[in-house]
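Re: duplicated header lines in exported structure tokens

Our pipeline writes sequence and tokens for each protein into one text file. With two proteins the header for the second block appears twice in some exports. Here is an export where it did not happen, for reference. First protein block:
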Amino acid sequence: MTWLVADELGVTLRLHIQPGAKKTEVAGLHGEALKIRLAAPPVDGKANACLIAFLADRLAVARSAVSLISGDTSRAKRVHVSGVEPASVKNAFLIPD
């Protein structure tokens, strides 16, 4: 599964982001990335802030555990989440093995 890579500290997620959606939600897989729709617009970092808050809430970690690795101004993003296991991430997003 290329959208989810585990390391000794947590997991790295490969995401495809759709800002400006009606609601913030996981939309399933998009190629080799997990697609997430965000209700926030892609201006002034609002979509990135919404993404970090959504991931932290969904994975039950502090916002400080979620860090944007790459894709600050792109739809294609890589995010690292500390302190979570791959199985709990898949369960949180209802993605089968």
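Second protein block, exported in the same file:
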Amino acid sequence: MREPVVLIAGGGIGGLALALTLEQIGVRAVVFESVSELRPLGVGINIQPNAVRELYDLGIGSDDLDGVGLPALEWALVGLNGKDVYAEPRGLKAGYNWPQYAVHRGRFHMLLHAKLVERAGEGAIRLGCRVTGYRNNPDGTVTALIQTADGGRQEETGTLLIGADGIHSAVRAQMHPDQPPIHWGGAVMWRGTTRARPIRTGSSFIGLGTHRHRMVIYPISHVDADGLADINWIAEVTYDDPGARDSGWFQPVAIDEFIGHFADWRYDWLDVPALLRGADIAYENPMIDRDPIPTWRDGAVALMGDAAHAMYPTGSNGASQAIVDARVLGARILDHGVTPDALSAYDAQLCEPVSALVLRNRGAGPFGLLNMVDERCGGVFDDIETVIPREEREAFMAGYKSAAGFAIQKLNSAPSTIPPGARVGA
């Protein structure tokens, strides 16, 4: 009998987390990544406690994560007048058994890659290979159709194929050929990092403004000897008439092209224009997602990460959910073997609730509190208690955490997704 092998289309965070998970449980995997060289691209992302737990169980601990980011201590929403709408501790300070991490996406990606090569060898990932489609075979195997960087064509047959190839997934496009186009609601984001002094706790995630005109600010490195850190920021504006612009652009942009939207955002604790001016470069891209699909599985093929559930980043849980996908898929393979039955169980467990989360994030996610403030007082207030009482704010946030899978008591008391030492066939 041939050794089972799982083919993974895409070497992003989700694909590498799955490859590491399969290595951990004794299943051979090969990752096919379209770029010819991996580089530490991107800016900041948050990894929620439910995903940090999974990383710890993968043997990627705080020493590793502190090298690519730092634990988040606070999550805060602030109104246009600079006053708090809602603030709460995060990670260990909130009572979780695991921290929340704010990391540089590219450095975190390279960390996962280094761990995979260290544990599974160089052959575990093939660069310059893009999966363009697949063929479910009569004998139950699956063949990945691959285009190489030099324009060549290859085929690779395996036991299962997992599409972790992002929002523009070719695997998903074949699985759901009639899917609607990428959804863009008119929000444009400008992203960058600035070397500056952290504010509030020194590791606070701050959402400032309104649901249609806001900043997100948080550090993604520990402070240096001068008290400075890499501060990740996202400036965002939602246009009522977004026009016919292609919804897939991602491009460098001059600060002067968007700073005017935030020219008056100066407070005694933060100077937003100065923060934006301090960046070496900024990138412009749309806030996009995809409509949910009824299933992530087709025979011996399944989707995960953004290929399955690309979502607005309003809940800071896109990367976290990709990591959780990988671990749940690994757990179902432990239950059912390297079989389509494992994919069915994975699909049944995650497709419906995560699809609901996609739509919840489209409705502003946890930033929905800013919607409520805007509706009730136009975003300006003296005492937030007279606008949204604390009990209502806390209930709103508790509902989001539950939907996103990181309610404190439930997460802290849940058994490990993959039991220590578990191996397929053991």
